[in-house]
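Standup notes
- DV: blocked on the single-chain target, sequence here:
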Amino acid sequence: MNINGIINVNKQKGYTSHDVVAVIRRITKSKTGHTGTLDPDAEGVLPICLGGATKLSEYLAADDKKYTAEVLLGIVTDTGDISGNIIEKRDVTLTLEQIQEVAASFLYKNIGIYMQTPPMYSAIKIGGKKLYELARRGIEIERPPRQVMIHDIRIHSLGESSFTMDVSCSKGTYIRSLCMDLGEKLGCGAVMGNLTRTASGLFDIKTAVKLKTLRQATDLSEYILAPEEVLPHPMFHIRQEGMKRALNGNQIPSSYVINAENAPENGMFWLKYENQTVGLYKKVNNEFLPKAIIINKV
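- DV (later): unblocked, structure below
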């Protein structure tokens, strides 16, 4: 199947991101890749790239994310979520106002960059080893903090020792780490319960499709989004004489692009030839430099 596009998958619990990639690859018989991992116990939005669109993964992964997370108070585990071994329990006597005040202390508008330490149970590689592989062997190492941004936190569904929060954040944010840091600042400890990614860039859970639906579909085209739909940069057309350079992955002089004078310097643009999207380009020094060629070469 000759496909270039992205499917907005609603991942269910129990699947790793690689599991989802493997399922989509079997269904489409296309080159397949994801745009950023989602924990096996988490569910929600996981955009999957197909064919030439796999070259766009880094651009899609850079988008902001939204999550709905359950926070369980008074518990500390070795994994930072409820699946881990409980290593400490503490009393919980908190009001909604206290929780909201502490949550607000993590917001970008209040503290700027949030220096977050990734959890040991994560797929980050340090020294060539994935952290979760070391953690499973009982090894804990120092992890350099990462710069992330928390744009918004909304607290709701407050119980005796739990609450639910909606989080809007930058890429690379670990919600488990945020839960643990919230718990420490609240003085009672906390771990993450259920987690749902509700949005990744323009991809929303309301339009995400489950694997069961994809397996049963007789026509996948209704679920496949064109790359230019999800990365809405301006579109320009290549002249025929510029296509050889494009297919060889070379930069395209502006003289080979129709109306190139209307494309601002240092902007990102889609270049198209007839009805085919060639790739994503950046205009530098009056030339279009290829960032991701997605056309299927003949």
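- Follow-up: The first strand starts at residue 5 and ends at 11.
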